Amino acid sequence: MAEIRNYTLNFGPQHPAAHGVLRLVLELDGEVVVRADPHIGLLHRATEKLAETKTWLQTVPYLDRLDYVSMMCNEHAYCLAVEKLLGVEVPLRGQYIRVMMDEVTRILNHLLNIGTHGLDIGAMTMVLYTFREREDLMDVYEAVSGARLHAAYYRPGGVYRDLPDQMPQYVENKFKNAATVKRLNAARQGSLLDFIEDFTDRFPAYVDEYETLLTDNRIWKQRTIGIGVVSPERALALGFSGPMLRGSGIEWDLRKKQPYEVYDRVDFDVPVGVNGDCYSRYLVRIEEMRQANRIIRQCIDWLRKNPGPVITGNHKVAPPPREKMKAGMEELIHHFKLFTEGMHVPPGEAYAGIEHPKGEFGVYAISDGGNKPYRIKLRSPGFAHLAATDEMAKGHMIADATAIIGTIDLVLGDTDR
Amino acid sequence: MEAGILQIFQSFWSRFGLWEPLWAIVEPVWPLIWALLRIIVILVPLLLGVAYLTWLERKVIGYIQVRIGPNRVGPLGLLQPIADGLKLFFKEVLVPGGANKALFFTAPVLAIAPALAAWAVVPFFDGGVLADVNAGLFYVLAMTSMGIYGIIIAGWASNSKYPFLGAMRASAQMVSYEIAMGLALVTVLMVSNSLNFSDIVRAQGRGWFAEHGAGFLSWNWIPLLPMFVVYFISGVAETNRAPFDVVEGESEIIAGHMVEYSGMAFAMFFLAEYSNMILVATLTSILFLGGWLSPVSFLPDGFHWLALKVFFFLLIYLWIRATFPRYRYDQIMRLGWKVFVPLTLVWIVVVGTCMVIFN
Q: Sheet of A32-39: strands edge to edge?
């Protein structure tokens, strides 16, 4: 009799469901996955090593490029670590802006995840709906930083500049007639805060729209319930964090457990899943978007009432205002030193972790007192989650493997670093 | 109609005094020429319909997904299908190194031939059918079952893992839904007492409601409502369309059996899929919604009614595709065997019992 062997299937890196460049080697028994072996490293860019050759400030844009769907959160963890080493205080307004932008980022990330998760399971309309809303949030990014994707907006000591008082407008062209332009510009008449508030007014209805398409859809439920189940104990043992951990029923959220910035001043709930399957994690993400919306509204409210500085006044860390730099010798020296040599960070070690949309994103920075980090270690949530692919996919079918990759919320830039 | 066309030819050629010698040559093969002419008259609009169905699909799904769809080639993107066709036509057909060449090229032909051949027995209006055979229903069943060989052979001949998985899925899926489809057709056969499509349509034009002006209530869809639904859903599965598109399963096995195909070889599969879609929509209209019959007696019957019904079903196809997630392979099997087959079996008994009681 012929020997019956399982066969291996090379799933990716060129595969529509591989979320970038994941290479998954599947060992299959018919359609059933016997072993899923994720191969990473195709997007490795040596960010940690690069950071050692750049000044502390120059590393910030590299952080954007790690998890390229939640850019500002990456910067946030890095800035927190550097601030810990420096011992500088961020002005309250800067903290609120950071929290608001973090939550905007959270919505951006979850929108992408739910859209592409839908796409992986075949609901292709979802991704276009979520991208419609992402477009508005990208405009927010653009308004504060000038870049839609790689913002580089946070700085050690605060944020680069205050929120703008006006939004850029659409102009009429060959493809957009006057009526379209008017409709698009309707929400852009006031300041950025007005624009975000308008978005937060509309957003809950959009989430309802997604839920109408998916939450009670029988096919969606059949495809996600009971798929990729992780028990609470295993989730902890595997080093899960974020929605992956909360989906398994463990209430763990760094925003509540070790509040950073002003998360202890805003009111929000932490959703927790029950079954630890793809469906629970999907529900957790949907609810997190609603909660993020809530946080953003509170931040808008506070930011409207409290003008003030957004970056620390310590000119050894943050550059002085431009007018003063032009007039005062001391400021000029500060400016010159900061933009040539960069800041000097006192020797020491510091770890800062934040509740990144994907889980705990941490930066461990070691300084030897120079103008460059001695060593930076990045803890990316996706790495631990991806490592559990085998455990989650075992015994499921190929189609479920794509659902599991979708639910992990994989971004290879983050995993490979 | 045949006589009328002959008349036109005759009057044309008689002007030059050439009719008599010409007809002497043509007469022995005239039936063949006449059949060919009719085939062309059916196939050319059909293929155009397929081309514009792709355009419609992209437009409709585009608007569902808050985008515009093709609008660059020609007004409203109306020349897009032609541009796509030309592109595919001029592309190289790549053959994978380890493929079985003969089978690799047989497969697309096997996919498209039955998809087009099935149209032979489809009546477009009263008397408007290429072959008015009495076993039309069987013929269609036989032809649509043939289409699966194209997919299986394509998957096997490519000598690659993804197509092979797709082919295995395809064979299992199409065979199971063939059964549900066939059983649903049995009920139609029972109520209309015929296997001839024209007779099936005519039988739907009779009845109490039809005599009182509301013909649409006499159509098969009311007494056979569950079968109507089963048939249409099975049709979606049979043609491997979303949410049953695991055979192509873009995010799982990329394009299934079509992975290794390019150029016109790929286009053949594509044409077969869309031609099958139109076929299933047409058959559903003929079997359950009275084909060319008008829904109310004060409007005339005709081809336009069939076209309208087919268009309606095609729109539903597109709507479903834009809305639903994809089933998993085993869930499709479960739906077919555990829901549809038992349902059709029960309904056959119900219909049979009713027929015995009321006659």
A: A7-11, A23-29, A32-39
DSSP for A178-229, written as a single string: HHHHHHHHGGGSS-HHHHHHHHHHHHHHHHHHHHHHHTT-HHHHHHHTTSS-
Distance between CA atoms of B16 and B26, rounded to whole angstroms? 17
CA distance A63 to chain B (A): 30
Helix (H, G, I), strand (E, B) or coil at A366: strand
From chain B, pick out residues whose CB is under 8 angstroms from the CB of A15. 254
Beta bridge partner(s), residue A8: A27
Q: How many CB atoms lie within 10 A of CB B225?
A: 12
pTM (two decimals): 0.86
Q: What is the pLDDT of residues B117-140, one digit of tens each?
A: 888 888 887 777 777 788 888 888
Q: What angle do CA B148, B39, B300 make, to 5 degrees?
A: 105
Q: Which residues of B touch A (CB under 8 A)?
A: 61, 64-67, 161-162, 165, 169, 242-243, 245-246, 249-254, 322-331
Tokens of B39: 């085939």
Provide the 8-state DSSP code for B337: I
Contact B147, B272 (CB under 8 A): yes
> How far is it, in rounded angstroms, from Cα B224 to Cα B229?
9
Which DSSP letter does residue A28 get?
E
Interface predicted TM-score of the whole assembly (ipTM), two decimals: 0.81
Amino acid at B12: F
Tokens coding B49: 């319909």
A&B contacts, CB < 8 Å = 82
